[in-house]
Write a structure and sequence with these properties.
By secondary structure, the protein is an alpha/beta fold. About 35% of the residues lie in helices and about 15% in strands.
């Protein structure tokens, strides 16, 4: 897992913001791509980016798609709070399908896009590391905790290498007080995924966050897999006070209740 040039990777959720930017960077690095989503995906390059429409509920389709791949980057799923039944079906069962398809097709590594929202109920004066107990700030965070647990199981029980990134606030620039600590720049996001793809670690969980002066998350686990961010939200003047807990508005009861089905 030391080089990307000439390797073949499948990217789920390829039409999303991170998916598009990451695929462009990987293509430039010489990676052969298979890009899939539940909607049409625009190829980065017709010669080096095969695009497919597929649903995470379709285990057979995923297994066939993963055949011959060196790894899978699993970005697919619901990316924010939603009704728990939908989150369970897409984010939990869908992640199980990705991991099981990887096992069946002989893929050696799955890079899993988790979220900082798995620990959003901790107060902002707590410096977190990935070994601390999860405290999700909503049902979306719960679904990501389950995804991380599935990754751990597949590494321990089935010898599938899994690297989980707890992604921060992926934005062009930080835009609110919370993002003084949670911001993940586009450049640092590419570096985080590249580190996850190439590390010698068999299993790891780390916070994918920029080198922000205001820090809520220990970056040591990221450094162990080779992730060394360079950008800092302190370079922007962002007025205002941070709202407790770390999840901020995501941690309010209404943020979950308003998305529940009757």
């Amino acid at each position: 897992m030391n080089t990307l040039t000439g390797s073949r990777w499948v990217v789920t959720g390829a039409a999303g913001n991170i998916g598009v930017a990451l695929r462009r960077a990987l293509h430039a690095a010489g990676v052969k791509l298979v890009s899939t989503d539940v909607r049409e995906v625009e190829a980065v390059d017709r010669a080096g980016d095969r695009t497919l429409v597929a649903d995470l509920v379709d285990l057979a389709a995923l297994t066939a798609m993963f055949a011959g791949a060196d790894g899978v980057i699993h970005l697919g799923g619901l990316s924010d709070e939603a009704d728990f039944h939908d989150l369970a079906q897409v984010n939990i069962v869908g992640t199980y399908h990705v991991l099981e398809a990887a096992r069946r097709s002989g893929v050696s590594r799955v890079v899993y896009a988790s979220s900082n929202r798995v620990t959003g109920m901790y107060l902002t004066d707590t410096l977190l590391d990935p070994d601390m107990p999860p405290r999700p700030d909503g049902f979306y965070g719960v679904s990501k905790v389950a995804g991380e647990a599935l990754c751990r199981l597949y590494s321990d029980k089935f010898d599938l290498s899994t690297i989980a990134l707890r992604i921060g606030s992926y934005e062009n620039e930080p835009g609110n007080p919370r993002e003084r600590a949670t911001w993940l720049s586009h450049r640092d996001a590419i570096a985080a995924f590249t580190a996850a793809m190439t590390t010698d670690e068999h299993h790891a969980v780390f916070y994918a966050v920029s080198a922000n002066t205001q820090a809520w998350w220990d970056r040591a686990a990221g450094e162990r897999v080779g992730f060394r961010p360079t950008d800092d939200a302190a370079d922007w003047d962002i007025p205002g006070d941070t709202v407790e807990p770390q999840g901020g508005p995501f941690a309010t009861p209404s943020y979950s209740l308003d998305r529940m089905r009757d």
